[in-house]
Specification:
This protein has helices at about 5-15, 30-40, 60-75, 85-95, 110-130, and strands at about 50-55, 100-105, 135-140, 160-169. Helix 2 packs antiparallel against helix 5. It is an alpha+beta fold. Keywords: Flavoprotein, FMN, NAD, NADP, Oxidoreductase. GO terms for molecular function: oxidoreductase activity.
């Protein structure tokens, strides 16, 4: 198979895979590094590399789950609050080997949409690298992300765009 055929196969087989389908096996640091490294090759105008990723594994991942639950409880009106959704946050993260928060850094040099587009392309590179390594993944952007700035130590010109869940399949 030539490179073009291999690339086409990877692109066509890329899909979102959810934590309920993860095996629970640990992703090696080497593969995780490869996934994150692939993001660095995304096109970005003026080489601003606006994507910011923070990796959560082990105890840090549990802290993230608690923070998400806290935010959901604090920001959801009582009549809209769902206990199942509250519990699902922790369960989904528990079944996930690695959670990566996806944030964008607005440089001020470019329109915001260009920085978001570049960040999205970086995530697409991660999706494709996951596919090539038989790692399940998906990008989630629940409204709790709008309240994670302090927890993630985001600066005024940065915004969280979602979570990237990864697990062996």
């Amino acid at each position: 198979m030539n490179n073009s055929e291999i690339l086409k196969q990877i692109i066509e087989s890329r899909k979102s895979t959810y934590p309920k389908d993860y095996t629970g096996e640990e992703i090696s640091q080497e593969i995780l590094d490869e996934i994150l490294s692939s993001a660095q090759f995304a096109p970005n105008h003026k080489k601003t590399k606006p994507w910011r990723f923070r990796i959560f594994r082990g105890e840090e991942k549990q802290q993230l789950a608690k923070e998400i639950q806290k935010i959901y409880k604090e920001t959801t009106p009582e009549h809209l609050f769902l206990e199942k959704k509250y519990l699902d946050f922790a369960e989904k993260i528990a079944k996930t080997d690695t959670v990566v928060t996806i944030s964008v850094n607005f440089s001020g040099l470019l329109p915001e949409w260009e920085e978001i587009a570049a960040t999205s392309m970086a995530v697409q590179n991660m999706y494709l690298t996951c596919t090539a390594n038989q790692i399940g993944c998906y990008w989630s952007s629940h409204t709790v992300i709008n309240h994670l700035g302090e927890f993630l130590n985001l600066e005024e010109n940065q915004r969280c765009l979602g979570f990237f869940y990864l697990g062996k399949i």
